[in-house]
Amino acid sequence: MINYRKQFIFIIFILLICGFLITSFASYFVSRSSLRSKIDTSELPLTSDNIYSEIQRDLFRPVTISSLMASDTFLRDWVLSGEKDEKQIIRYLKSIHKKHKTFTSFFVSEKTRIYYHFNAVLKKINSEEKRDEWYFTVREMTNNYDINVDPDMANKDTVTIFVNHKVFDYDGNFIGATGVGLTVNAVNKLIYKYKQKYNRNIYLTDKFGNIVISSEDGKKEIENINDIEGISSVADKILSSKTSSFNFKRNGKIIHLNSRFVPGLEAYLLVEQTEEGTTGKIFKALVVNLIICVVVTIIVIILINFILNAYRKRLARLAENDEKLRKINLNQEIEISKQNQELIEKNHKLQDALAEVKQLSGFLPICASCKKIRDDKGYWNQIETYIQAHSDAEFSHSICPECAKKIYSGFHKEEDK
């Protein structure tokens, strides 16, 4: 009985634990799947939109400034008039620098290849010099402007984000490139601000995947998204689509990435989010549920054990009562058996008596004179002998008054006198 009880409790324990584990983990995985879908379809794209809006506000300003410079009639007229007074263009560039608080402002003439800076004339552009490749890239590009990161030789080679814009004359002919620059540190502060605000990693890349801005300090030495673990596996897809969402693993963690092409900057905005922070709450809920399941299971097992013990005691009492009843019934059966035996014996005696009575019943041959009785074997017996042999009757001899008169007639006559 004890072994059966232990087996029963163990089976109930296993069923409860399995049931709780299945429901808890099923709920966890469903919630995690729903959360992943929410991150990919709404949360991360919404964050990307917000960052994109703030980038438009913070970084489109220099693009707008460079566009205004490229369409400025003074600049075009000054170039078309033969670039006679260098002080005029320097003063113009300095006013742009002060008014819009840019890090640098510049103009490079296609005709003279002179690099004008808001402080002075720097140099002439040379197609064979590596540091001047940017200009010839701008000249050959199909877009009107681009963004590139280069050291600014006019500011002690400070790494600068340049917004370069083509300048055309009134007939649409290319006459030079102008633009403004922001220090990478200044832009990084903006990106870092976005990271702190939205708790996301942010990258801004050109059309070739080269990282222009990154919110991660540890990835300053990485120049292209193909060199970033996880992103490298989807880099081609990112650079071939306007908007996209991806999932991948990095250091054992699930990373969600949303990318979108920023037309104004001709760049890709990449916003990535780890799943750990979001699913951590669900995992904590899972742990709490499991703890509750264990506590509930223990309580249920204790209650079942208590009920089984009470039931076992009740069964023991019933068994004890049954044993007492069995003994009482056994004693009664023994007593009844004895009584039955006595009745049987008496019955046998009665039957024997009846048999004897039957032997004395019927026609008995008796002598009409001496009153002897003839038995079955043909012998004649005295009547008292025959009756004694066939019954329990005993005879005592005496003389009845009539016989006495006959036998002792003389004696009776004297008495009458």
Protein described:
This protein is an alpha+beta fold and 417 residues long. Among the domains are: 117 residues, PAS domain (Beta-Lactamase); 44 residues, no CATH class. It is built from 10 helices and 13 strands. Strands 3-2-1-6-5-4 form a 6-stranded antiparallel beta sheet, with helices on both faces. The chain has a 5-stranded antiparallel beta sheet with strand order 8-7-11-10-9. Strand 2 and strand 3 form a beta hairpin. The two termini are 105 Å apart. The mean pLDDT is 79.
Strand order of the largest sheet: 3-2-1-6-5-4
Q: What is the rounded Rg?
A: 63 Å
Q: Judging from the principal axes of the Cα atoms, what is the shape?
A: rod-shaped
- Look up the CATH topology of the domain at 65-181: Beta-Lactamase
Largest sheet: 6 strands, antiparallel
Please count the helical segments. 10
Q: CATH homologous superfamily of the domain at 65-181? A: PAS domain
CATH top level class name of the domain at 65-181: Alpha Beta
Amino- and carboxy-terminal Cα gap:
105 Å
Structural class: alpha+beta
SSE blueprint and pairings:
Elements: H1 2-70, H2 73-80, H3 86-100, E1 104-109, E2 114-117, E3 121-124, H4 133-140, E4 145-152, E5 158-168, E6 174-183, H5 184-198, E7 201-205, E8 211-214, H6 235-239, E9 243-250, E10 253-262, E11 267-274, H7 275-360, E12 373-374, E13 380-381, H8 383-390, H9 401-407, H10 409-416
